Amino acid sequence: MNTMNPAITISRILHAGYVFECEGTRIAFDTIFENPFSRNCHAFPGMRFDEAAIRRQRFDAVFISHFHDDHCSLESLDLLDRATPIYLYCIFDELFAMLRQLGFAKVQPLRLNEPVTVGPFQVTPREAMDADVDSMFQVRAAGLNVLNVVDSWIDDTTLGQLAEEGPWDMVLWPFQTMRELEVLAPSRHAAAPPTLPEEWIDQLKALAPRYVVPSSCQFLQEPWSWYNRAFFPISYAQFAREVGAALPQARIVRLDPGVSVRLDAAGLQPAAPLPWVIPVGEQDVDYVYEGNAAAPPTSEIARHFAPLTAVQRERVLDYCRSGLPEKYGEVEAASDYFEQPRIWQLSVVDSDGAVTRWRYRLAPEGKATIDESEEPLGWTTEIPATKLYGALEQGESLTTMYLRINDTVFDPDTERDLLEADVVDDPLIRTLFSDTFGAYQAAQLRRLLAR
After folding, report:
1. Other CB atoms within 10 Å distance of the CB of residue 108
2. Which domains are delineated in the chain?
3. Dihedral sign, CA of 247, 200, 123, 29?
4. Residue 358 and residue 136: Cα distance in Å, rounded?
5. If we measure between CA atoms, which residue out of 7, 357, 332 comes closest to residue 169?
6. How far apart are CA 179 and CA 338, in angstroms?
7. What CA–CA distances, in Å, run from 328 to 361, 428, 430?
8. Nearest CA to 195 among 243, 155, 257?
9. What is the mean pLDDT of each run of 10 residues along the chain (451 residues)?
10. Around Cβ 310, how many Cβ atoms within 10 Å?
11. How far, in Å, CA of 199 to CA of 81, rounded?
12. Are the C-beta atoms of residues 121 and 20 closer than 8 Å to each other?
């Protein structure tokens, strides 16, 4: 006679990826089967995937929380059986069409607060702070209640709703505050304190789970990257100290890639690891934060990337000559900084350290023209040429491009105005990303269909 309590086995894949299993039904979340993923996100701790074994896996459903390429990668999904139902939270129809072009026959949109039943599982998407982008997942099965926050933030209204959905057996909590924007302009940002945001502690207290898993992240950038000392302020140890002190009744459980646990009403026990997630090297590793960590010049960073071919370099130069000025008038800034004329200098740095500089006069009505005057600069941007090509042709995302913004001292009036400017108002960021969606996945799809 089986006297074991009904249970869910929860296994970590990588970053925000998980496999949940109950009564023979297996569902997965945010399935990333790549290392590195998103071009320069290397698993931390180290691991590798057995792709042949992944191709043999069968999931009863896959749930994707949002469209960011570290959660929805077509090259990872390409390893799955095309009969797998895919449930995706996304307000853009284009991504659903891409998944169908890849061959998935069952692609369904997720609606907030509308549960999806798969065998014993009831999965309910919950509203994140940025509902146009993110979602969270409430997972019920075997009489248990798990909240997968993915990497979203929670507003007060949603927190109240989630508290009413308790009690919570486990919360998968995004434990890092990534400094994606601060590293773009390191000379203009103070080092972040290595501590959890106060609202996180209050929110976890309101949820009062039995178990808390520090979730999301689990990656570093390239081994040479200065981001590895500046991007992630919070360590696993710090998370455990702060959450443990605030929630003494809860147990903080670290799940590294491949690690599995069996959750039931009585407690939590180790379970057999995922055989297709293979640990590599030391696993008991942690983040080390050093503020802005003496950011190296862009010329040094650019030397780490492969040089462009003549054709590729001409693509970059043509964009700087004509594509960018034409595009600039189609995108708007979020702040008022560019509501008066500014001279912008764009420096494109080759892998040998050579720099090609472009000066543009940016007019308030949205016109950008190449400028040869000696007027004072009002904004500067530096980028490795290889990364600019990657954004143009391969859908490379902002966090992998090593942009350096306003890394100089301007005249006093400009410095005063810059206090109210937003780094994402950068003209290159706007012309590359403001009116595009799914460029990364579209580039993946082109490669996959061309095989």
Report:
1. 13
2. 7-279 (3.60.15.10), 298-449 (3.30.1050)
3. negative
4. 43
5. 7
6. 24
7. 11, 9, 8
8. 243
9. 80 98 98 96 97 98 97 98 98 97 98 98 97 96 98 94 97 94 93 90 97 96 96 96 97 98 98 98 96 92 97 97 94 90 97 97 92 94 98 92 97 95 95 90 96 87
10. 7
11. 41
12. yes
CA 31/CA 16 separation, integer angstroms? 8
Q: Which two tokens stand for residue 59?
A: 């999931």
State the amino acid at position 281 in one-letter form.
G
CB within 8 Å of 289: residues ≥ 6 apart: 194, 229, 230, 232, 233, 234, 235
Identity at 117, one-letter amino acid code: T
pLDDT of residue 101: 98
Strand 404-405 versus strand 379-384 pairing type: antiparallel
C-alpha pair distances (Å), 417 with each of 201, 211, 335: 35, 47, 11
Residue among 44, 45, 16, 48 at smallest CA distance from 32:
16
The tokens for 440 are 């990364």
Alpha-carbon torsion angle 395, 402, 360, 329, nearest 10: 40
